[in-house]
Amino acid sequence: PVLRLLEAQLQDQRREHEEEMEALRNQADLMQEELEKQQQAFLQTLQLSPEVQVELGLQQEITRLTNENLDLKELLEKLEKNEKKLKKQLKIYIKKVQDFEASQTMVPVERRLHERNMQVAVQRKEKDFQGMLEYYKEDEPLLIRNLIT
Fold first, then answer.
1. Which intervals of the chain form a coiled coil (predicted)?
2. How far apart are CA 60 and CA 3, in angstroms?
3. 131 phi, psi to nearest 5 deg
4. Alpha carbon of 145 to those of 33, 97, 108, 110: distances in Å?
5. Using CA atoms, how far apart are residues 143 and 94, in angstroms rounded to an integer?
6. Please, which of 17, 48, 101, 144 could form a disulfide with 52 given CB 3.0 to 4.6 Å?
């Protein structure tokens, strides 16, 4: 049983190796064909006059640059589209954070304002106010934000 298992594994490995070798042979054949085509094109180019060689070289470079330019334009469009999407998401998240902060700060502020209103009512009987507002130092940023909005 162990010998049969090892023989089966060996046959599987041999089959995989042969398949890999066949794929590599095919790849090598394709590369050889491409090399021969390039050599023929190169030999044909060498037979042309120097002016034609320069012109062909320029045409090839123009074609390469045009293709590269199109690829870059496509990439730019994708990036701009992604930037717009991210800006929209950022606006949504900023709004959510502001709403959350407002909901978190409004509840304690409303309680404190209610407590202060009760204190103010008592204090008005005792003090003469000159239009000044009394508040806790830690509530200053919230008070300024509420006054602005």
1. 3-96
2. 62
3. 85, 15
4. 74, 15, 15, 14
5. 21
6. 48
Could you give the maximum distance between any two Cα atoms of the chain, in Å?
110
Q: Say how many CA atoms lie within 13 Å of 56 toward its Cβ.
A: 12
User: How many Cα atoms within 13 Å fall on the side-chain side of residue 22?
Assistant: 6
CA distance 90 to 94: 6
> CA–CA separation, 108 vs 111, rounded Å?
5
CB 112 within 8 A of CB 139: yes
Q: Give the position of tokens 């300024």.
A: 144
- Report how far residue 149's alpha carbon sits from residue 146's, in angstroms, rounded to the nearest whole number: 5
Dig out the tokens for 62 from the structure.
């123009």
Cα separation values, 83 from 36, 43, 86, Å: 46, 49, 5
- Whether residue 45 contacts residue 53, with contact meaning beta carbons closer than 8 Å, is answered with yes
> What's the mean per-residue pLDDT of the chain?
83
